[in-house]
Amino acid sequence: MTYLLGVAAAIFLGLGFTLQQHAAASAPASDFLRIRLLIDLLHKPIWIVGVLSMIAGQVLSAMALATADVSLVEPLLSANVLFALILARLLYHQPLGLREWSGSLVLSAGVGVFLWAGDPRGGDPDTDSLLRWVLAIGVLLLAQLCVVEARRRGGEVRPMLLAAAAGLLFGVQDGLTRRATAAWHAGIAKIFLHWAPYTLIAIGIVAMLLAQSAFETGRLRTTLPVIAAAEPLAGIAMGVIVFGERVRLDTLPLAGEACGLAAIVAGVVLVGTSQNFRQLEQALLRRRPRLSHRHADLRLTRNHTVD
């Protein structure tokens, strides 16, 4: 059941991210990294559908996290980029070539190798401590570093850094979801007295703003793969550091885990940089009444000039 929930969550997340990027790419450049961006996007029905799809994916992932360790669920969620590609195929009739199939196989193999080699187990959301959460702040600091560097950069580097920051926060959000779920099981009244739900909401809003800013300033093929690669890595780190999940650390299993994670990242990059994503972007641009190719290029040039 955990695997089915994880895959279903990845499907809804892939759909949600694709629709959100479609809407955010036509948002005013002045909304960059401002809460006003989210307010403006609320007037776009397609963005709302994308958010609802993402919420459905997060609910399904929460159900999976309630019954399994974070380090087991996170690799399954990274498959959302594959379903975004399939969406492009269905909506815009773009064929899947060797690069896409290769990336799909590499990603699937990476998930399987990591789960087999690491054999993650033993985590308990009730055994977290303040010290463990302090150690996890390192993930938040890394996300902050990405945002600071994104403000200094222009061109394609800026949205990639923002996407990395968003992916890291989504991974932290997954860890907090598991903690909040444990509080929920302790009683509905107690969940309102626990810190986890409020922190979950705050980080979720920041992660959403970073993701939409990345979608606004960048292309689908340079943002979605980065989010899909960063989120599981951060989520696995949260599972090990905060919840005490254990993975095998003998020489051979450790090598297998490293190969599995490398294959996950490589598969996401192969799929995300495919020609189908380029053709999807062109199809999206043709359907936008207010954003042409020339305007999109001018936006990237303007961001680079400002920096």
From TrEMBL:
GO CC terms: membrane
Transmembrane spans: 45-65, 72-92, 130-148, 160-176, 188-211, 223-243, 255-277
Secretion signal span: 1-23
Topological type in the membrane: Multi-pass membrane protein
Main location: membrane
InterPro entries in alphabetical order: EmrE-like (IPR037185), Mg_trans_NIPA (IPR008521)
Entry keywords, A to Z: Membrane, Signal, Transmembrane, Transmembrane helix
Matches recorded under Pfam families: Mg_trans_NIPA
Coiled coil residues, start to end: none
Record localization: Membrane
A single GO molecular function term of this UniProt record: magnesium ion transmembrane transporter activity
Protein name as it appears in the record: Integral membrane protein
Organism: Acidothermus cellulolyticus (strain ATCC 43068 / DSM 8971 / 11B)
